[in-house]
Amino acid sequence: MLDGKRILLIIAGGIAAYKALDLIRRLREGGAEVRCILTRSGEQFVTPLAVSALSGDKVYRDLFSLTDEAEMGHIRLARDPDMIVVAPATADLMARMRVGRSDDLAAAVLLATDKPVLLAPAMNHRMWLHPATRNNLAVLESRGVLRVGPDSGDMACGEHGVGRMAEPAAIVAVVTARLAGSGRLAGRRALVTSGPTIEAIDPVRFIANRSSGKQGHAVAAALAHLGARVTLVSGPVDLDDPPGVAAIHVDSAEQMLAACRAALPVDVAVCAAAVADWRIANRADQKIKKGDDGPPSLDLVANPDILATLSRPGPGRPILVVGFAAETSDLIENARVKRDRKGCDWIVANDVSPASGTFGGDHNKVVLISNDAPSEWPRMDKRAVAERLAERIADALEAAS
Ligand code: C5P
C-alpha cells in the first residue's frame, strides 16, 4: 500500500522511541522508503546504529554536519518525503514547532517542510494535560498538522493516564490512509499535465504560453488526495510539487509528451498544461546576436498534441481523458468542437477573457463538457474546482468498472 512512498521519520527523545524501531520495520514492510532523523535526546533511548540498520539508510542527526549538508541538505530532507512522521513527538518538540524554532535538525526540517506532518505524541500524562501542551497542539492542528494518539494506559514512569504513544500499527494505518488513500481512487493511476511549455529560440530566449500551473497542480493534488497514484508532468512553474505526487519537470512540448508516454498506462489522464502550439524549427545553438541584419525570422513547426495523442483509441488508452479549453468567447460551442477534434472524453472549459481574472489568479469558473448536457459550475477557487473534478473522475471510473 505504501509502495514507493517516502517517509521521513523524526525520532525525538522519549522512552517510546523504542517503538519507533518497530514503526520503521512496518513502514518498510508496507513498501515505503524510510529515512530517519534522530534528535540528540532520541539518541538517549535508541542508538543510531539500530535506526540505521532497520531503515537501511544513514541516520541524520546534525544540522551543522558538513557531510550531511553536502549529500542531503536539511531543505531537501524537508522537501523530498511524501510525509513526515514524528514518533515519538515530545512536548518539547511540539513547543518548538509551535513557535517556529529551528535550533536542531528536526525543528529546522519541520519548519522548512510543506509536506503533511503526522505527530504521534508521547509523554507523561501531566505534561500532556498541561495547558501549555494543549495550547501548542491546538495551534499546530489549526495549521493542518495531523495527529495519532496518544493512548491511555500505564506509563514507563509508573503513572497511569493519557500519554502513551500510539501503537506502530495504528501509526502505519494513518500514514496509509493519508498517502495510499483508502480514498475512492485507491489503486488507480492518474497522469496530469500542468504549467506552460517553453520552446527555445536559442540558449537564452524562448517562446511560451501563459500558465501559472495552479489549476493543473491542484488537480494532481486532488486526485492524490482521493488515493490515486499520480504522475504530474509539469513545465516550468513557480509552485512546489504537490504532496504525495510523483512530479516530472520538463521544458518543451516534446519532452512533455515523452514523459507522459513513459507514465502510461494510467486510468485517467488530465491535460491541463498550456502546451505551446509551435516550436522553433531553426533553433540556434548559440545566442543570436543583435547584429545589423534586423530581427531574425523564426520558422515555426507544429508541436505534438499531447491531449489528442493520449486520446487516440487503441489498447492502453486511458479509460478517461480530460482536456482543458481556455476560451475567450463562445465557451461551450468552442469547447465542444475541441472535444470532437481531440477525441478526449471531457473538456473543462474556462473563460480566460481578461475580465475573468482566471490567468494566474486563484479562481476559475468552468463548464464541464461531456456526453451529457454541459454542466456549469459556480465560480470557485482552483482547489475547489480540482476537488470537484476529482470526485467526478472517481464517479466515472466507478461507473466504467
Ligand atoms: O488546442 P488547445 O491548446 O486550445 O487545447 C487545449 C487542451 O489541449 C488542453 O487540455 C491542453 O493541455 C491540450 N494540449 C495538449 N498538447 C498540445 C496543445 C494542447 O495536450 N500541443
Provide a descriptive summary of the structure in words.
The protein has about 400 residues and is an alpha/beta fold. The chain folds into 2 domains: about 5-180, Rossmann fold, CATH 3.40.50; about 190-400, 3-Layer(aba) Sandwich (Rossmann fold), CATH 3.40.50. Helix content is about 35%, strand content about 25%. It is built from 14 helices and 22 strands. Helix 1 crosses helix 9 and helix 5 crosses helix 8. Cytidine-5'-monophosphate binds near residues 303 and 307.
Quickly list its features.
401 residues; alpha/beta; Rossmann fold; 8-stranded mixed sheet; elongated; 6-stranded parallel sheet; 35% helix; binds cytidine-5'-monophosphate
Q: In CATH terms, what is the architecture of the largest domain?
A: 3-Layer(aba) Sandwich
Total strands: the figure is 22
Q: How would the global form be characterised?
A: elongated
What portion of residues is helical? 25-40%
CATH classification class of the largest domain: Alpha Beta
The main pleated sheet reads as: 8 strands, mixed
CATH topology name of the largest domain, in short, is Rossmann fold
Largest sheet strand order: 13-12-9-14-17-18-20-21
Structural class: alpha/beta
Hetero ligands? cytidine-5'-monophosphate
Mean pLDDT: 91
Name of the CATH homologous superfamily of the largest domain: CoaB-like
Distance between the termini: 21 Å
Number of helices: 14
Based on CA atoms alone, the radius of gyration comes out at 25 Å
